[in-house]
Inverse folding.
């Protein structure tokens, strides 16, 4: 089973793209909606939340977990991969993030001036800049924190005029940098894709971490048959949240269509 973890409903944009490419696999989605947003929390708190989530997902059948949250990928992924798994002697399960595949895609496009928008935690971590540098890119990166967008999206306010006004305020400074591409460094942001494209204009390529992560996961499974063979394929979809299941279901169905049941858990 493939586990997909996010602080809320944003990771469903990742799940939607993954299921398009890999429909036969079984999926377990966990949205920690009781503690969203993660973006303004300390690294220590995010690491603690992430450990609790992956431990629960492994216990409930996940063999491969996708951290479908840029904030967790930025601040806790290395800890999960290099310490959590190692300390527990777990070598038959994997945890993957979404920042590297997004950066790899941006580099492949050949852009030299790239904007990144994300939560305060993601942007302040410098994770995107570090990843570009690690991969040998000399692209100029322009980053901008957009702390209000996730709460607005979680409350289904993202289609209201007030949210559009806030979005414009966030994007104007980064648009003025004459960027060639804009990375949506938060998996919630594709839910405002139409407005983002309209504000940025046709000359700016919008790169979604959801879309690029799905493509890279399909490639990863092709390159790692030893992992792929461990994943069950019955087209099962399971959804869990740490908050109100009815509210989660309502939001989730706007993103990925009809789902049967959502279960509440405590981490």
């Amino acid at each position: 089973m493939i586990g997909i973890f996010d602080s809320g409903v944003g990771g469903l944009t990742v799940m939607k793209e993954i299921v398009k490419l890999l429909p036969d696999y079984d999926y377990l989605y966990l949205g920690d909606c009781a503690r969203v947003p993660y973006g303004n929390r300390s690294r220590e708190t995010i690491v603690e939340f992430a450990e609790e989530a992956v431990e629960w997902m492994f216990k409930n059948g996940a063999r491969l977990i996708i951290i479908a949250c840029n904030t967790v990928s930025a601040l806790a992924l290395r800890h999960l991969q290099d310490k959590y798994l190692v300390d527990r002697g777990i070598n038959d399960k994997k945890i993957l993030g979404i920042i590297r595949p997004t950066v790899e895609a941006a580099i492949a496009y050949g852009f030299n001036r790239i904007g990144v928008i994300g939560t305060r935690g993601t942007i302040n971590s410098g994770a995107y800049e570090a990843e570009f540098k690690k991969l040998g890119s000399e692209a100029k990166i322009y980053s901008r924190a957009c702390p209000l967008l996730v709460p607005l999206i979680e409350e289904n306010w993202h289609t209201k005029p007030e949210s559009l006004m806030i979005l414009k305020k966030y994007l104007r400074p980064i648009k003025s940098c004459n960027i060639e591409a804009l990375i949506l460094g938060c998996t919630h942001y594709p839910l405002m894709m139409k407005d983002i494209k309209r504000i940025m204009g046709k000359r700016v390529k919008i790169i979604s971490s959801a879309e690029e992560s799905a493509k890279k996961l399909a490639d990863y499974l092709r390159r790692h048959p030893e992992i792929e063979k461990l994943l069950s394929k019955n087209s099962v979809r399971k959804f869990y949240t740490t908050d109100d299941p009815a509210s989660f279901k309502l939001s989730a169905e706007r993103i990925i269509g009809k789902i049967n049941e959502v279960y509440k858990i405590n981490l």
User: Anything to note?
Assistant: The chain has a mean pLDDT of 96.
